[in-house]
Give the backbone structure.
Amino acid sequence: MNKAYLWHPFTQMRDYENTDPLIIERGEGIMLFDVQGRAYYDGFSSVWLNVHGHNVPELNEAIADQLGRVAHSTLLGMANIPAIELAAKLAEITPNGLNKTFYSDSGATGVEIAIKMAFQYWSNRGNTRKKTFVTMDQAYHGDTIGAVSVGAIPLYHEVFRPMLFPSHVIPYPYGYRHTGGAPGAKEATLTALRLLLETSGDEIAALIVEPIVQGAGGMIVMPSGCLREMAELCREHDVLLIADEVATGFGRTGAMFACDLEGVTPDLMVVGKGLTGGYLPVAATLATDEVYGAFHADYLERKTFFHGHSYTGNPLGCAVALASLKLLEERNMVQGVIAKESFVRRKLKALEERPHVGEIRQKGLMIGIELVRDKALREPFAWEDRIGVRVAARARELGMLTRPLGNVIVFIPPLASTEDELDVMTDLLTASIVDVT
Ligand code: PLP
């Protein structure tokens, strides 16, 4: 039935039809169990979103409790209690000044909203020249057309190019693949941004960036200070900054938000994935009072933000998000990530000696291991080598789930993973890489 009726995302179905399908039946803690009863460590947090593990009593109760009241009511011109409380909580925990929450239901729609808000912000202020966006090489912001337009991963995005709006692309500071290392890469990024803003800043609405860690591009960690300097350049040139914290938000990098690591307050910030602890599809676009203010006018001025999805501000999703944030605070989990980060770093260190391990990148509990065919030359494995896919398949055989990004092996365990669990998972990860390479 699975192969007959389901079309899986980001999956070549011809290959899939020849595989032993993985069908998950239940979860408990950081383990997932398939229909045959086999157990797997959730080594990529079910695509980077699980925070507290699966089947968490507090989160289950929050949904059940809300379910007994109302499952959904619209946010178009009216409200519900969890949506109000969550918006207030987000204003409290996000960088200072982001006080207005606009809900949606996936990272991509959250990004779509940020892009449209940035565009309309300038138009509402009477500036119709600022229409374009700046993004970074290998950026990933989701799969809707606006989000793809500011995406820059050729494999995913090129086929759609003729139907997209054009964006400026500046280099991402990828120290491992820059002749000047991290400092050279950082300089190249800042120089490109400075030049672009000096020449075309008056036509640019916003820069969108995955702060501190570029996720789908290969878990690439920005050199220190880069984000802050980019934010300063944007401010100097009257260009909005959109921080896409969909992957990095809610403690994943060892701070509540990656922007906090460099004291940056963006004009717009998108959160999703971990917002509900990985339970339900809720995302949010946060705006500063300044951005919000540009939409605040007489109805006849047509400055309203005409955007909204049917399930926006869903009470079940907002209730579980509130419960997840409560656990995050009560259990001091963001602080906990810092200790876990060092533990994982120490455990993975030995992998550096392996002949095909090019670079191990880590920020908090976001880890990418780039495998290379020739370590001295930093020569990538070829597409045909399917190296990442083979390592992930071996990990699954050994009892851990992950999904590669090309030649980069991803390890993003749930934040709640204990040191013992991280110990086992890093061993399984190491064994999978050793067995395949
Ligand atoms: N932005 C970033 C940085 C992401 O990593 C992702 C998903 O991986 C998205 C946006 C898209 O989120 P969603 O899959 O919920 O649409």
Q: What stands out?
A: Residues 24 and 209 are 34 Å apart (CA to CA). The mean pLDDT is 97. The chain has 15 helices and 17 strands. The domain at 73-328 is CATH 3.40.640.10 (Aspartate Aminotransferase; domain 2).
